[in-house]
Amino acid sequence: MSDNKQAWTGQLDLSVFNNGKKSVARDIFFEKALKVMRPVYLNQSDIPTFYIVNVGGGYLDGDRYTMNFNIDSNAKVILTSQGATKIYKTLNDHVEQYQTFNIKNDGYAEYVGDPIIAFENAKFYQHNIFNLEPTASLFYTDILTPGYSKSDKYFSYTYMHLLNEIYVDETLVTFDNMLLDPTKQNVDGLGYMEDYTHLGSCYFIHPSVNQKFIDQVYEEIKHFQHEYDCRFGITHLPTHGFSLRILSNKTQVIEYIITALQSYVVKQIFDRDVDFLRKY
Description:
Layout: E1 10-18, E2 23-32, E3 34-36, E4 49-54, E5 64-71, E6 76-81, E7 85-87, E8 95-103, E9 108-112, E10 116-118, E11 123-132, E12 137-144, E13 159-168, E14 171-180, E15 198-205, H1 211-221, H2 224-227, E16 230-236, E17 241-248, H3 251-270
Parallel strand pairs: 1-5, 4-6, 5-8, 6-9, 7-10, 8-11, 9-12, 11-13
Antiparallel strand pairs: 1-2, 3-4, 12-15, 13-14, 15-17, 16-17
């Protein structure tokens, strides 16, 4: 959808490598409306956590963003946003965001973003490409809210279009094309949001993932469907990984489930605890 000749509203490029003791940034470049904070190593971890910041506080009509993350062999990185992604009304144009993750063998990228909030009349397109070598690993999440309007009307945005492509060893294993267009669809009805208002998505890819592991993950989190008003399902991807979809009426419920899932897989696979991503 993007014209590559145009100037970016914000650009970010980040590379991480393992120096033999810990993972560190090799190259960091950002300009205009995007910046990344200095990495922090939470709880004496050897994994850097980077907070991505939109300097303007939100995405405006016509904005175009690009982010590229490169994780070398045996390197690990945790990425997160500083706060919710706010898409303000886009009456004349739309907002585009492109994110590319290149992860080499035995590298690991963990991206846990804050919710996406599309304001009334907003138009948002996001295209993510994940390129994983055969033994690379990925944990990625996003949360879509019903948006915001002054009249408290849900789904008042024009559309939100999220496209995810996941490649493992240069083979396309997932093509997830999600379009929520309230102007043309009954998005809160059957086949879409099923009378729920919030949607959470998660991908986890690691060479150790198989159907037995996925069944164990489901057993670990299935109790949430009895404790909260929510629905979710886990799908085995055509590779060593799975996707999780969560429907709820509250962001917090989705965050609880994702955190429980993340805590379980990170402990089982990497034998470490999940760091609390402090945001002030």
